[in-house]
Every structure is written in C-alpha cells, then in structure tokens.
C-alpha cells in the first residue's frame, strides 16, 4: 500500500488516543454515561482503522506483499479484540457502577492490543515497496510515538489523581470539575477512588517497565544495532531516537494539558522525567556496547555474544534511576508528582531491565526482518549463467569467428 494509507491509519490512531485520554479526564468529573464526546472520538478512530485495514485486505489485496498482508491481518485481529471489548466495558460499568480507574480488566484489554498493532503496522509499512521510500523513518517514528502513548495509558489514573488529591488536600474540598452527583456517589471513599484503589508502588514499577520497553523498541528498530545495514527506514542521525520519542510524547501531553485547562476539565501531571529516561536509554545503547564488550571479554567471555542484552538491561536500570531522580527534582520544585515509595526503587530497576530486554528482543527481530526484506537476494551462479547464455568458444586458430 502507498504511504498515504499508513498516514491515514496513524491519524485515526491519534484520534482514538485523544478520545481515550479525554475520556479519563472526563470521568474524573462526570458520572458514567453510555454516550459522551470522548466515547464518540474513540469509536470513530477505531472504526476508521478497521475500515482502512479491511479496504487494504479486500479491495487492494493484490498490491500487498506477503509480509505486509500478514501484518495487516494481525492488526485487524487485534482491532477486533478492541471492538469486542467495547460491550464488555459497558457491561463492567453497569455491574460495578463507578469505575474511575484505568486499571480495570476491560480498560486494560482495550489498551494492550494497541502495542501489537503498532509493531505489525511498522513491519507492514517498511516491508511495502510503495511505502518504504526515502523518509519512511519519519512515519515509523510516528508509530513508535503512538506505542509510547499506548503503554503509558493506565498511568493517567495516578497522574490525574495526584493533581486531584493535591487540590483536595489544599482546599479541603473536591476540585471544581467534579459534578455534585459524582461527589455524592463517592462519599467518604473519595480519596481512595481518586487513585483508583491502586497501591503507591504500582506507578514507578509499571512506568519503568512500560516506558523502557517503548523507548528501547523504537530505538532499536529506527537506529539499528550491531552493524545493521543503514537503509531508508533508519534514523538519519547516530543518536537521539529515545530522547526524541520522549520529547514528542511530552509535546502530546502539553497539548492535552492545554485542552483540559481550556475546558476546565481534570488535568494531569506532565511527566517531565520521561525525558531523562529517553536520554539515558540513548546514551547506554549508543555508547555502552563497546565498554561492555571489553568488560565481558575480560571477566565473562561466555557472555560476549550477548553484550547487546547486557546493554539493554543496564539501560532499563538507568531508566528507572532517571525516573526516580526526575520525580525527586519535580518534587523539590514543588511540582505535583504521583506517589513513588523509595522502597519500590529496586523493583522498578528490575522491571525497567525487563522492559528494555523485551524491547531489545522485539526490536531486534523486527529490524532483522526488515533488513532482510530491504536487501534483494543475490542471484545464484546458475541463474546468472542462464541469463547471460552460454559462453563464447574461442576459435581453434585463435582468431575471431566469422
């Protein structure tokens, strides 16, 4: 498919993501309803994605290469899971009433197929001869930015809740955007409801896991690894993929924050500490492999072929430390941050390493697949001989024939 097909899908994804983020803010101040503007935005965004994928598979099937066809089929199956989850989420709300949490099973089920969709659509786009031309890395960067948005989604609960709880503690009453009906339903459980009943340690541990994964997988696919071929879908600079993804996400969040303040809605913490996480991931994965290889050669030669995995694990640990450092700096500047107990730091380091290792594994597999597809196979000697025809035989007398 042509590049504009993948641009259209990315626009539809952005609409659905905006609707989902707006929905979290909306329900911090309004009681549950079956129909609202945020729900409509999500439905339109998902519906457009389904329509585009069906169009490609049914009406333009002959234009799809094999890998592209399989990837688009997988993306469509993942979107069907999202569609099935919509009535399940409605049923969950009707059964349990107020559900002011992004951590409910139906909300998580709606969110996590998104990451699979992002990965397979990157494969489809960069495997398509019509879409992987010069500058294809920019569109792939947009998809990986969407991956950051998707894996972060459950954390909106703690980031909006932290602001609401701070206002509740300072003023002694619910923020202005909370409807009286919602305030009456919450009653004495308002403080617990604001944080969705999630424990304080969940935020730093999940943040380190999810964001280390998203930043690492984008960096590995776009910047390559260990001498992979520099092709048209590679990031054009030697450094900065993860940092740029973090900065792009912060721009997205500042835009949402502006909207929330303009409509007097529930607003959220802007996670500035993500920028530090992106920076350390870039530093470790760009400059770390060589000293890591030297150290392994001296101390653990058996691990030398796996130095990229060691670098990924160290990048995840460094990202968790950058997360805590950034939150501490924001707190010192009297900026609101979600709770992050210091006792959870070791577990955040482990989860960060796990997320970066997962990102390295997925990114390496995708990068190898795309590199092999981008490079045409060399012709065999027999095929070359058949194309050139039989060799000319020299004249017995050494003169030219004829």
Write up this protein.
The chain is mainly α. The protein is 69% helix and 0% strand. The protein has 16 helices and no strands. The protein has helices at residues 3-27, 37-58, 66-96, 105-111, 113-127, 136-152, 156-171, 180-186, 190-194, 202-223, 241-262, 273-287, 289-299, 307-332, 345-374, 381-388. α1 runs antiparallel to α2, α5 runs antiparallel to α6 (136-152) and α11 (241-262) runs antiparallel to α12 (273-287). It starts with a helix and ends in a 14-residue tail after the last helix. Residues 226-230, 375-388 and 391-402 have low confidence and may be disordered.
Distance between the termini: 53 Å
Sheet having the most strands? none
Tally of contiguous helical segments: 16
Portion of residues in beta strands equals under 5%
Please write out the topology.
Elements: H1 3-27, H2 37-58, H3 66-96, H4 105-111, H5 113-127, H6 136-152, H7 156-171, H8 180-186, H9 190-194, H10 202-223, H11 241-262, H12 273-287, H13 289-299, H14 307-332, H15 345-374, H16 381-388
């Amino acid at each position: 498919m042509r590049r504009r097909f993948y641009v259209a899908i990315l626009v539809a994804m952005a609409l659905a993501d905006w609707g989902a983020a707006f929905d979290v803010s909306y329900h911090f101040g309004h009681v549950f309803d079956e129909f609202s503007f945020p729900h409509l935005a999500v439905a339109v965004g998902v519906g457009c994605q389904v329509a585009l994928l069906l169009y490609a598979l049914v009406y333009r099937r002959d234009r799809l290469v094999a890998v592209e066809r399989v990837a688009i089929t997988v993306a469509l199956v993942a979107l069907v899971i999202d569609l099935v989850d919509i009535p399940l989420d409605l049923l969950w709300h009707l059964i349990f009433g107020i559900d002011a949490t992004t951590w409910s099973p139906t909300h998580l089920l709606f969110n996590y197929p998104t990451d699979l969709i992002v990965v397979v659509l990157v494969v489809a786009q960069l495997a398509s001869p019509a879409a992987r031309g010069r500058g294809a890395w920019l569109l792939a960067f947009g998809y990986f930015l969407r991956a950051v948005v998707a894996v972060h989604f459950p954390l909106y609960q703690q980031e909006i809740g932290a602001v609401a709880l701070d206002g509740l503690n300072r003023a002694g009453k619910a923020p202005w955007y909370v409807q009286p009906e919602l305030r009456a339903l919450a009653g004495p459980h308002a403080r617990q409801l604001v944080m969705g009943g999630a424990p304080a340690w969940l935020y730093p541990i999940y943040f380190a896991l999810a964001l280390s994964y998203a930043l690492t997988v984008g960096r590995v696919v776009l910047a390559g690894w260990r001498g992979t071929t520099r092709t048209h879908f590679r990031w054009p600079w030697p450094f900065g993929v993860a940092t740029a993804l973090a900065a792009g996400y912060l721009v997205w969040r500042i835009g949402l924050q502006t909207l929330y303040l303009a409509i007097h809605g529930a607003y959220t913490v802007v996670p500035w500490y993500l920028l530090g996480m992106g920076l350390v991931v870039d530093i470790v994965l760009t400059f770390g492999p060589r000293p890591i290889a030297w150290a392994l050669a001296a101390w653990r030669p058996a691990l030398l072929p796996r130095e990229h995995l060691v670098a990924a694990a160290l990048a995840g640990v460094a990202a968790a430390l950058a997360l805590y450092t950034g939150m501490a700096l924001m707190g010192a500047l009297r900026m609101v941050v979600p709770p992050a107990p210091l006792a959870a730091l070791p577990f955040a380091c482990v989860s960060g390493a796990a997320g970066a290792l997962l990102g390295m594994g997925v990114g390496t597999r995708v990068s190898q697949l795309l590199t092999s597809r981008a490079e045409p196979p060399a012709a065999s000697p027999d095929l070359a001989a058949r194309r050139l025809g039989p060799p000319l035989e020299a004249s017995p007398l050494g003169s030219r024939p004829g």
